[in-house]
Amino acid sequence: MRRTRSGSLARKLMSVAAVAGLFTALAISSPASAATSPAAASPAAGPGGVPRTVVLDGPRLALTRLMVRAGAPQLRGPVSSLKAQADSYLTQGPWSVMDKPQTPPSGDKHDYLSQAPYWWPSQPATASNPQGCPYVDRDGVRNPEVDTITDHSERGEMFNAVYDLTLAWYYTGDPAYGKRAALDLETWFIDPATRMNPNLTYTQGIPCQLDGRGIGIIDFSQQFTDILDAVALLNTGAPGWSHSDNTAMTGWDTQFLNWLMTSSNGADEAAATNNHGSFFDMQEAALALAVGRPGLAKSIAETAETKRLDVQLAADGSQPLELSRTLPFHYSTFNLLALTRLAMIGQKVGVDLWHYRTPAGGSIFKAVDFLVPAATGTASWSYPDLNFQAWAATDVIEAAADAGDHTAGKALPDLTQPPGGEFWLLRPAPEQLDPVTS
Q: How far apart are the first and last CA of the chain?
């Protein structure tokens, strides 16, 4: 289904909202208003309850909320769809790493555990070789046995639930959404009986070969920044989420960041040159910003110019390291998801990755533009692909358009709407839209 021009109309609406926001900002920053605002009690919220998000634009979210509360017609559909998703999560979960039937090699079920998705047994199972070892890589073909370890799937459900519930609470004010998001976070990260240890030592292991790999850090990094932003939204006054909850969550984040920076798995993933390296930087920079280390976040974003963009982006906008995969369109959009979100983090610490040009002439904008013809259907995708989905690129094109890319902006009316619906106006940061497990 092709999109209408509601995207451009909504952008005009947001421009009107920005003007209105100038007057609102004066009101919400006044001493009288601050004294009565529930969000004012949270030290993690900005003036007037503006969320101190690490990827999403906090002031923009606050303006969008004003327009939702005012009944802006362009936002009614997205809010209705968001509420429907959040409603489904009110009776699911909470999830915990303690749910899995297996015990990690550490002997502690609080440690997260997952198995490499594309590795398969090469031999028939026998009494002497029950797992069919050795395992071999079949890129892009998912082995269903990995789903017997529930941490990966439950982590994904928890991430999605927390994000949708939190956004629904923020825009509607319904306390049920905030309370349920808080419960899900407390269960996974805070409650001593159910919490996950802040490490990813045993991710994407390969039976008979490795207990865990640095490559498995992407289990978290592709979406954990949503959790960081959700916490920032809850900190503006959500029921069920307390100051002590935020302190505990910040402590977990701090320990996790330290593990990423000091562990061998972290070092391996940081050294990756493809999308894994991009997501590692994105997650590490977001965590640094969330725990009060903006200098570290800035250093990561600055280093990404030469460490990521120079290496990954060709002069014509292609991403050779991603095009070599069996799912080249997915991985091209996937890597750009990380790079565009890192560019959004960079904006908060004074680093402009959007307009950086590599020595070869590549850039994030050109990499997005490279995908536009296939995403809009004006040209076919010319690379062999196991599962081409044009709408996988929708969010990264939205992000580039927001950042000033003219080609991306012109493409917006011709994009195919993702099957799950259009939520850009409510959470304007790229998400992985196709269901490929990476």
A: 26
> Which residues, 6+ apart, have CB-to-CB distance to 37 below 8 Å?
28, 48, 49, 237
- For CA atoms 236, 241, 245, 249, the dihedral sign is negative
Helices (H), 98-223: 150-172, 175-185, 218-221
How would you classify the pairing of strands 113-115 and 135-137?
A: unpaired
| pTM above threshold 0.85 | yes
Residues 412 and 394: their CA atoms lie apart, in Å, by 8
Contact between 352 and 346 (Cβ < 8 Å) = yes
HSE value, Cβ hemisphere, 13 Å, CA-based, for 160: 19
Q: How many CB atoms lie within 10 A of CB 187?
A: 20
Q: What would the pLDDT profile of 169-228 be if each residue is shown by its tens digit?
A: 999 999 999 999 999 999 999 999 999 999 999 999 999 999 999 999 999 999 999 999
User: Quick one: CATH architecture of 6-414?
Assistant: Alpha/alpha barrel (1.50)
Under-50 pLDDT residues of the chain: 4-10, 12-13, 15-43
What is the gyration radius of the CA atoms in the chain, in angstroms?
22
